[in-house]
């Protein structure tokens, strides 16, 4: 498949407007970054306490906080998408920052709400990161301990003793002993020389985990944006039915969704790899950042990468506009087939229901027939021209 160069040309043409709208999202990212920066110590303490006590309330609080932030972000992405689409129409003059915020409310309602599946995507991102860190980290540290690289073997034994003492004091409900053990552990962790054999390789392990995890996040968000077309173009559908239609449509040999997607948008993947790698390792060279550990380094490099990618996101929107114009009939055909089967089952199930429900079924059937007629006209341009000619006469 050839690259859709029009997506990039349209991006340049629309950039005076889309960059303004993208900057609003960047500012939102910065506010979230500042929030987590000031809450960093508190959140880390919550995680430690939940792990030591075996409780889940602290974890639930953190999950709810992330869910709240994602809930605020989702309508922004819809508004960004919708504004970019309007720029292709005669109403492009109406695309302003003020209307961008007005469209935000639409993105928080059905059918747009929930289509990006942000929470599920975040979960996959987290699991990918953990898988990479545990697998690569386990192999790396096992080899290092076996060969005592950087003197890690002795430090590892000392660290294990401190953890065992902490858990023992906690199991005995010895508050003074637990506090003393906790202070000893923190003293070890805060000692750069003691932790160097662990922190130095973790810089590269963490990089690999973040690179893979964030790729999953950005990739899935980018793919799920296309679901807005399916949700809004067919009378409004829930995420469940969008999944079914998208899955069934991909069975069509003429669709080539992923081939078109990767052949056109691979430069964005390369941009992600380059931007994240450079920001991560260049920031590592700044003492004021690395002195706070991997938390600030990871968050800052993620902020920079997300900001760059969100400004380039209209390239994906433009490509999806092209794909929808070319392949919309395939998705509509799948939708009609599914809706016809559902309507048939409902008519059989509601055969003895009241007149009001019968009227609703009849109206739904009429709307479906109209959609079939429109699809037939689109697939047969000659019939459409005849219809228009007769109207003119």
Record the SSE blueprint.
Blueprint: H1 6-53, H2 57-86, H3 97-107, H4 118-147, H5 152-171, H6 175-190, H7 192-224, H8 227-233, H9 239-249, H10 257-284, H11 287-290, H12 294-312, H13 314-349, H14 355-379, H15 381-392
List the helices and strands in order.
HHHHHHHHHHHHHHH
Q: Give the percentage of residues in beta strands.
A: under 5%
Ranges where pLDDT stays below 50 over 5 or more residues in a row are 386-393
Structural class: mainly alpha
Biggest β-sheet strands, sense, barrel: none
Question: What is the CA-CA span between the terminal residues?
Answer: 44 Å
Overall mean pLDDT: 82
Count every helix, treating DSSP H or I runs of 4 or more residues as helices.
15
Rounded to an integer, what's the Rg over CA atoms?
A: 27 Å
Number of strands: 0
Shape: elongated
State the helicity in percent bands.
over 70%
């Amino acid at each position: 498949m050839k690259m859709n160069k029009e997506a990039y040309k349209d991006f340049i043409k629309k950039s005076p407007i889309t960059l303004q709208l993208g900057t609003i999202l960047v500012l939102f990212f910065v506010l979230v970054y500042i929030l987590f920066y000031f809450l960093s110590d508190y959140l880390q303490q919550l995680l430690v306490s939940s792990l030591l006590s075996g409780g889940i309330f602290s974890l639930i609080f953190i999950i709810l906080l992330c869910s709240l932030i994602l809930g605020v972000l989702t309508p922004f992405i819809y508004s960004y998408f919708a504004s970019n689409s309007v720029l292709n129409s005669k109403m492009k003059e109406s695309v302003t920052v003020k209307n961008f915020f007005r469209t935000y409310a639409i993105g928080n309602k059905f059918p747009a709400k929930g289509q990006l599946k942000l929470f599920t995507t975040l979960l996959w991102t987290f699991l990918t990161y953990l898988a990479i860190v545990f697998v690569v980290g386990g192999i790396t540290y096992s080899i290092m301990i076996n060969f005592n690289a950087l003197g890690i073997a002795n430090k590892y034994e000392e660290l294990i003793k401190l953890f065992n003492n902490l858990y023992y004091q906690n199991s005995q409900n010895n508050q003074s002993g637990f506090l003393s053990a906790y202070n000893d552990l923190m003293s070890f962790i805060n000692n750069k020389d003691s932790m160097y054999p662990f922190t130095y390789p973790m810089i590269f392990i963490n990089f690999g985990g973040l690179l893979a995890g964030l790729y999953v996040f950005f990739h899935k968000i980018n793919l799920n944006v296309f679901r807005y077309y399916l949700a809004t173009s067919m009378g409004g559908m829930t995420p469940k039915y969008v999944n079914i239609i998208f899955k069934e449509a991909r069975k069509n040999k003429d669709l080539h969704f992923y081939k078109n997607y990767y052949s056109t948008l691979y430069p964005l993947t390369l941009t992600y790899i380059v931007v994240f790698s450079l920001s991560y390792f260049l920031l590592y060279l700044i003492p004021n950042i690395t002195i706070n550990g991997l938390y600030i380094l990871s968050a800052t490099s993620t902020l920079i990468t997300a900001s760059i990618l969100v400004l380039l996101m209209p390239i994906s929107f433009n490509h999806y506009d092209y794909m929808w114009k070319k392949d919309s009939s395939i998705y509509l055909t799948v939708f009609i087939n599914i809706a016809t089967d559902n309507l048939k089952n409902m008519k059989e199930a509601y055969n003895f229901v009241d007149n009001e429900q019968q009227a609703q079924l009849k109206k739904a059937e009429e709307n479906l027939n109209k959609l079939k007629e429109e699809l037939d006209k689109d697939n047969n341009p000659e019939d459409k021209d005849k219809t228009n000619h007769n109207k003119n006469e």
